[in-house]
Amino acid sequence: MQTNLFSGDEPSGEAIKHSIDNAQLLEYPQIVDPSEATQMFERLIAEIPWRQERLKIAGKLRDIPRLQCWMGDSASEYGYSGVRLAPCPWHETVKKIHDRVADLSASTFNCVLINYYRNGQDSVAWHADDETELGDTPVIASVSLGAERIFELKQKHQTPAKKYKLLLRHGSLLIMSGTMQQHWLHQLPKDEGLLEARINLTFRNIVGK
Ligand SMILES: O=C(O)CCC(=O)C(=O)O
Ligand SMILES: [Mn+2]
Prior knowledge:
Elements: E1 10-12, E2 15-18, E3 24-28, H1 34-47, E4 54-57, E5 60-63, E6 67-72, E7 78-80, E8 83-85, H2 92-105, E9 111-117, E10 124-127, E11 140-146, E12 149-155, E13 163-168, E14 172-177, H3 180-183, E15 184-188, E16 198-204
Antiparallel strand pairs: 1-2, 2-3, 3-14, 4-5, 6-9, 7-8, 9-16, 10-15, 11-14, 11-16, 12-13, 12-15
């Protein structure tokens, strides 16, 4: 698997534009300075109403390997891997991050899925954020706080599939857009031995709400 960064990457202002087929992937290595990012991280861990969602796998209900909170405008309800999530009202810190991200990406977001990976045993499996309520070419803005984790990308339809890895840093922003969700899958694999936690906020816009 090819590692960070992609050949042909170009700097774009304070962002790095990753060159991948049929997609746009823009990385801002630091949108908040590390001390403010740490304050945000600690506040979110303490104040977000984290939920343990469960999924039916082979007829058995199992805990998903992370805690979550769905947050957003009151009308946004969302389906994720078969789970229906009703939104919590905006938290002050999340709203602050939202405003920064909306400004940088020049996009509108009416909700955010927040994931809390308690340690390296927590993860998210291969998937695309391609739910119909997000539209055909969604802009997904993904903010990372806490432990650095590897984020992996894999082509959906090609054999052999190209794969890439990116290191997602404390206080960084990754914007996935264009036809990315149609052509690529992404995952956050387990990181055996990692004891530190990470929070990820993926801002989304549910169309027609
Ligand atoms: O934690 C991450 O960086 C990715 C999370 C993700 O892909 C999702 O919540 O859809
Ligand atoms: Mn995703």
